[in-house]
Amino acid sequence: MDTDYKKYNEIAEILKVLAHPIRLCIVKGILDQGECNVSHMQSCLEIPQSTISQHLQKLRYAGVIEGTRHGLEVNYKIKDERIIKLINSILILN
């Protein structure tokens, strides 16, 4: 058994961040669209922009997503290929 649990810290932090239904929905939506902005997320999720921004901040901080600015708009995409594989394996939804 591997006793060097510290090397699993990054993975555990990513899993903690993803362990919220709104954040999972955001990540799945970004994955389905390829890229997505806050306005689109707000219309799909029907929750306040400020709430979405708080969730995006947590996802960015954990390294799950990254944003690219286009004028006043920021488009988000999945930053890490491991996240794409993880979401595809656990969220097999119709």
From TrEMBL:
Keywords: DNA-binding, Transcription, Transcription regulation. GO terms for molecular function: DNA binding; DNA-binding transcription factor activity. Residues 3-94 form the HTH arsR-type domain. Transmembrane segments: none annotated. The keyword Transcription regulation applies. Pfam families: HTH_5. The keyword Lipid metabolism does not apply. This is Transcriptional regulator. It comes from Clostridium tagluense.
